[in-house]
Fold:
Amino acid sequence: MKKKLLFMVINMNLGGTEKALLNMIAEIPREKFDITILMLEKYGELLKSIPWDVEVKYLKDYHNIKEIINTPLQSLSLQFLKDRKYSKALVSILLYAWTRLRKNKGLLYKYVLRKYPMFGEEYDIAVAYAGPMDFISYFVVEKIKSKKKVQWIHFDVEKIGFNSEFSSKIYKKFDKVFVVSKEGREILSRTIPEISNRINYFNNSISSDLVKKMSNQDIGFNDNFEGIRILTVGRLSIEKGQDITISVLGKLKEEGLKVKWYCIGEGKSRNIYEELIRKHNLEEDYILLGSKINPYPYMKQCDIYVQPSRHEGYCITLAEARCFNNPIVCTSFTGAKEQIKQNETGIIINFNKKELFDSLIKIINNTSFRNKLIKNLGNEVFEGKGDLEKLYQVVND
Structure:
């Protein structure tokens, strides 16, 4: 009899977490498992990429509670008072006082979900996949009936405003907590030592064969530029670090180098970056390409790939870039050392403009070093299936 797996996420936006889920689902044998994805919102560029044999469900009436769970209660109370919504203001004030007094954020979720019945059927494993996202963790624990429950962590919990007090309570109710990098596992174990025996490392999987195949399915760069192309892929946001790359490109241009920097991705910081590009007079040289479902032709064709993130959990775009043999520079976010061997398959730097500039100059000007990186990347062997046996074992334990 087939086992039933449920993965709960926010949406299917074009991000590393969602791509990691799709990569993993592609490897799960359908003759053994029925798979369901439960989303808070029907949204995202990757909706069409969900396999046809995966059941997709949405949380009913999420729009009615979205504001109250995503906005600080004190701010929400003030806004309700300004809008003369006095009854809502009173409720939010009382909720704020209640959760602060009891030091339990879960009381807010208990209130907003008080009329929600248990969700759907019983599953063998229910996974809070978009973690840490406190509401999803709570919903999986309290509103989904399953034999085993798993929490997934995709981020560095020291860098994202992680609520360790809430998490230490809720994570005790999960059978297993998977973290996508070994370094991230160690950080979480230090942060919540009382659950360290439940924490395990789970390697995000990518299919290098599929990535390479897709790199031949679109055109990629079409501007006929004959200089050095530097590429960065990621959501346009401060945590992804594109802001420091703009001034670094300016310095490269001052050195007389024929170089352009391309960014694939979209996000809330676009206007900020456009202003920085204008400030440095780089309108023709720093190119915001927007979102691309298939970024792989650009990864294949670029001369250097840069991942300048302030923090990551296990960077999927870095793993994808490694499928092509182009030199890589990345910052020292969580999991970077698990993907890049320093000065062998790339350069790991601190989040620092000077170090980024110096690394790029080294790759551009030192032909033998550049060729060494290319050769070593070409000799790497990818383990595409990740750690799926660890997930299967949760059912059998």
